[in-house]
Amino acid sequence: MASATRRNVLATMGLGTVAVAGVTLPLGQSASTKDWISTAPKPVRFTRRMPVPQPLVPTVLTDEYGDYHLYEVTETAVQAQVLDPGAPTTTVLAYGPHGGAPSVPGPLIKVDQHTRVCLKVRNQLPPVHPVWGYPAATSTHLHGSASLPQYDGYADDLTQPGHWKAYWYPNHQGPRTLWYHDHAVHHTAQNVYSGLVAQYHLQNAWEKANLPQGPYDVPLTVSDAMFDSNGALAYMDRDHAGLYGDVITVNGVPWPFHEVEQRWYRFRVLVATLSRSFTFSMVNTRTGAVLPTYVVATDGGLMVPQKVTTWRHGGAERYEVMVDFSGCRIGDTVELRNASNKNNVDWVHTNKVLQLRVTSAARSTVANRVVTPPASEVNEVMTAPRTLSRRTRNIDLEHDDVTNEYLINGMSWHDIQAGNWNLFTADGPPPRPGDYEVWKIENKSGGWFHPLHIHLVDFRVLSRKGGLGKVAAWEMGPKDVVYVGEGETVEVLVHYAMAPATYPDGRSTGQAGATANQGGRYMIHCHNLAHEDNDMMGQFLVAPAVGDADLSLTGVNHPFAAAPAV
């Protein structure tokens, strides 16, 4: 199959094995957990300050549909001081404000609910990746947004170097932590690993009045990496099983520190790893006590706060947690630690993430508490009865031991490309906007966990069989990624988003007034990005509110033909 050929190509590019720690590790093996895998100088923990991304300032413009906010970012390849000062620099791919300095993670975008946004992304990368040599096309996905298919970052909707694309977002959903990242077909893993990642916050009046803001609302983008002796990112995905680096980064810096006051903070935690999952806790190093943490929002927005001492966090999941430092002494340090999960590959310091230094008394008491949101502020999928489900769909996550492909319902992306295929063909008619369905997701793939992401929808986790055996406290909020453990079956109640009646694309050549409720194709895939690229991704069809879907290349919402890059 095509993906088997692709594996041979990757092997010739050096992506199957990598020389580390003085030896070449065979595919599927790792060094001792007591060792480092990187051969670069080892970063010193908790000596560098954590950068805190500041919101990008938009240009406010007006068209025939009213005001919108224009954000312009450029993708470039640059040298960054990821390792400690004095160590070699690292080639990264980075988003930056147009005409401004690129960074990893990229520029933070904060917008109010119902603010129409145009994100113009310019691909100014070299023709091929500067380290691994594949064509440097990109596709930008705003993860968590109910976008039209042509603005959703579809895998085959590619922007080539020297070109740009305008993505339009209605931001009609409730407050939540989203993120934008690259989604290019079969190279999502390397592009994300190289740095094409950034947070995007959607806000409203209730969230602003009742949750910490400004310096007390702290985005944390957590990732991992491994480095060659020359400072370059090393890529070893263990024969596509997953990449597990020995260096943990937060907001692009290995094991940083951040100063806090004696008060409540909100941390927007995004795990942007390729494969690694975490089990997090906040520990006061003086007393050894675990600080109680309140999960106040998940992928899809606000929830009834849940008090936890630890929480499991898979790739692409977002958990907004509130932590009270008022009981700490000035001078205390609190560490965000990681107890890991089954089938990660752990190294000597991957149990450490971030140090929080309590340096002063509280300067403000605004939003200095945990508040339960009113029902009107909680995503409707959290209270919708299961009986609203129109049907149950079965989603099997599988691994083909012969081709070494990761599959959904026995199908690969090659099958999608070749046959215009729809995951739901055997499960009855396609859903329509506003529908509820139960998805029964079963992990039949063997020794892997899968953070499964479903585009467009929000869902509620209904049940778990195997694995945790129950719905965990931290996931009792609306989700768009679900951690499916080894041999586990998870049921979720899916809600297909209803978008505004008209959604202009802002291009002079047409499609203005395209109706979001005309449906279209959307992706489902594993967010272990080594699995997604090889080949655990599919698509499902959403029919329009009335009538049949238009699947032709000229269809108003075709995912890569309706609004191509220019």
Description:
It is a single chain. This protein is mainly beta and 566 residues long. The protein folds into 3 domains: 201 residues, Cupredoxins -  blue copper proteins (Immunoglobulin-like, Sandwich), CATH 2.60.40; 149 residues, Immunoglobulin-like (Sandwich), CATH 2.60.40; 167 residues, Immunoglobulin-like, CATH 2.60.40.420. 6% of the residues lie in helices and 36% in strands. Strands 12, 13, 14, 15, 17, 19, 20 and 22 form an 8-stranded mixed β-sheet that branches. Strands 3, 4, 5, 7 and 9 form a 5-stranded mixed β-sheet that branches. The protein is globular.
Largest sheet: 8 strands, mixed
Poorly predicted spans: 1-33, 501-514
Termini separation (Å)?
A: 32 Å
Number of helices: 5
Radius of gyration: 22 Å
CATH homologous superfamily annotation of the largest domain = Cupredoxins -  blue copper proteins
> What is the domain total for the residues?
3
CATH class identity of the largest domain: Mainly Beta
User: Which overall shape is indicated by the principal axes computed on the Cα atoms?
Assistant: globular
Structural class: mainly beta
